[in-house]
Amino acid sequence: MIGIKDIPNHRSAHASATPTAAGACLSFIFIGFYLTDQTFAPIPVTFVLGLILLTVIGFIDDWLELNYKTRLVSHILAVGMVLLWQSLSPAEYLIWFFIGVGLINACNFLDGLNGLLASQWLLTTGFLLASFAEFDSIFWILWISVLIYLFFNFPKSHLFMGDTGSTILGFSYFSIIFYLAPLQNEFPSLFFSKDSFILFALFPLAFAWGDVAFTIIRRFIDKRSVIASFGDYGFHHQARFFKNQSLVTLTYLGLNGLLTFGAQFLFLNHQLMYIVCSIYLLMQTLHIIFVYKIAKKQM
């Protein structure tokens, strides 16, 4: 995009210089509809302001590689703007801050293989919007834009979303959860208001979150940087093991689909909750063991 390219190195999953920062286009499309089309259900302008902030910072980062602290500050400010939608207690603000900033960074970490983040984001947010939002939600515009992007960039990517896109997807995922949570009165509160719905909304990506958490713990034990890019996530090791990025992306998408199906029973049918969670924990444990073994062979 306007000459900005991702140059591959020893940590990269791609082999040739590829245009990046296409995530800015997703933002422009969304903002364009927000400003010109009045048929969508209204959303607070603070989300759009946060989206603009993250788009600008993400675009500059794709271009010049900003300091991580600068990006983190932008994440905190954008999440803070979204939290203005509702009146929350100080403890709830802290919890939502952690969830919002964590989701933005987790989605950035997942953006490592062609179609991996976009496909899982589409399935998870599509499930949430179709189940709990009206079809006049403007978030569907972003969903359709990502679907079109993925159609032209999988299995081979001709244009990367870059940090701009992964940040936007993480931010919008958080915003959708925060937007929908107050409307879900049928979900019981375990520790704080709407916490069970948050777990429900995050569960479809549990395999991906497990991958990220496992990698961060390994880095911490090995005394390596937690935020730097080493190309050592589970999906990186699996892509090298199978020598097929698309296969790994589709595998994670399939796991996402199983968890999305299982999520329907997590809190709506308590009799099946423990069964679903037990099956997931068993599968996740086997998955981590497999990743750990192939990672040791590749070191």
Summed up, what is this model?
The chain has 299 residues and is mainly alpha-helical. It is 69% helix and 1% strand.
Kindly describe this structure.
The protein is mostly helical and 299 residues long. It has one domain (5-298). The protein has twelve helices and two strands. The protein has helices at residues 23-36, 45-64, 68-83, 90-110, 116-132, 139-152, 162-180, 195-202, 206-221, 234-242, 245-266, 270-298, and strands at residues 5-6, 18-19. The chain has a two-stranded antiparallel ribbon. The longest helix has 29 residues, at 270-298. The relative contact order is 0.13. The model has no long low-confidence stretch (mean pLDDT 85).
Order of H and E elements: EEHHHHHHHHHHHH
Which of globular, elongated, flat, extended, rod-shaped describes the shape?
A: globular
Distance separating the two termini = 35 Å
Question: Runs with pLDDT <50, length 5+?
Answer: none
Largest sheet: 2 strands, antiparallel
Classify the helix fraction into a percent range: 55-70%
**Overall number of structural domains:** 1
The Cα radius of gyration reads: 19 Å
